[in-house]
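Sanity check

After download, print the first record. It should look like this:
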Amino acid sequence: MSKDCCKCRDGRNGRDGRDGRDGLPGTPGTPAFIPSFANFWNTADVAIAINTPLPFNATGVKTADINLNGTNDGIIFGTPGTYEVSWIIAIAAAVLGTVGATLDGVPVPGSQFAFIGTGLSGQTILTSAAGQVLALLNGGVAITLATGTNVSININRIA
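Expected structure tokens:
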């Protein structure tokens, strides 16, 4: 008889064999984004000289990785990333001046704003390494900060 005859039938399947050994661990995945944020402000009505950072004397809601420096005129980033930074400044008397963000003393491109009057708001997006210091630098003329909350800054890590 040939192998192709119709009289051959398949038998029953046998039992499943044992499971094999576990494979090697896979490559670790990317960790989830962990937000960083902070809010600082100032309530002291002080005079600020030209090319002097604006002060902060109060801390709001924040994560542990964004902190004021030892002189309370700079903000230290503990986590590298891209941050959205916005600020509001109230001045006691109307002047023509400029205020801008600096990172380790270097002006952040696009963050130097001129103003006429008693108030200024600004916003920028910057990329910081861990340990870099952000400051708002007064330029142009000496100013006196208004009574009450006169400098406020909000920082949010976006990437």
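If your output differs, re-run the checksum step. Summary of this record's structure: The two ends are 75 Å apart (CA to CA).
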